[in-house]
Amino acid sequence: MWSHYASNHKGFCIEFQFPDPDEQPSPISYEEHIPSIPLIFFLQSHFARINNQIEIITLNALHTKLDDWEYEDEYRWIASDKIKPDLLEIDRCTFFPYEPSWVKSIIFGRRMSSRAKQFIIDNLPFRTEFKQAIEAKESIEIVPYDAEKHLRYGD
């Protein structure tokens, strides 16, 4: 997933850990087709207030990816019931406030510059663990971050 979501390892990943057992990410279902949501359901839910049925169908669709992506073994946490209308939106991005205690670690991509890593370490407004993605024999491994050992790329 690093190549798709973290600019080919030049970015970073935030590892979350939610304290509430009811607030855990759900595994993605990999299928041949992503479920569709008939337009009539949206119209009916608006007029007839059958929101529960459309919510189930929508969450099912949001937790489904094409089976070509199964190697990702992805989990998702949907914050739909947490988003409030007054949250700041910029260019289709919603800034969602979270508890710093939810952040288990920051994982640096294997090609992330040392300057960017140091900027995050110096400016994060709370303490957390830092980890590093490294290239292993046939995979990517996540190890504890050691500034002396992991200084390289793009400095």
Describe the structure.
The protein has 155 residues and is of the alpha/beta class. It has a domain of 79 residues. The chain has four helices and ten strands, in the order H-E-E-E-H-H-E-E-E-E-E-H-E-E. A four-stranded mixed beta sheet has the order 1-8-9-10, with no helix packed on it. The protein has a two-stranded antiparallel ribbon with strand order 2-5. A two-stranded parallel sheet has the order 3-4. The longest helix has 12 residues. The model has no long low-confidence stretch (mean pLDDT 79).
Mean pLDDT: 79
Oligomer state equals single chain
Distance between the termini: 24 Å
> Which consecutive residue ranges, at least 5 long each, have pLDDT under 50?
none
- The whole-angstrom Rg is 19 Å
Largest sheet: 4 strands, mixed
Number of strands: 10
SSE topology string: HEEEHHEEEEEHEE
Widest beta sheet: strand line-up: 1-8-9-10
The portion of residues forming beta strands comes to 15-25%
Q: Give the fraction of residues assigned to helices.
A: 10-25%
Q: Helical stretch count?
A: 4
Structural class: alpha/beta
Overall geometry: globular
Short description, anyone?
The protein has 155 residues and is of the alpha/beta class. The protein has helices spanning 2-5, 39-48, 51-62, 114-123, and strands at residues 12-16, 26-27, 29-31, 64-66, 75-76, 89-90, 93-94, 103-108, 129-135, 140-144.
Write the layout of secondary structure elements.
Elements: H1 2-5, E1 12-16, E2 26-27, E3 29-31, H2 39-48, H3 51-62, E4 64-66, E5 75-76, E6 89-90, E7 93-94, E8 103-108, H4 114-123, E9 129-135, E10 140-144
Parallel strand pairs: 3-4, 8-9
Antiparallel strand pairs: 1-8, 2-5, 6-7, 9-10
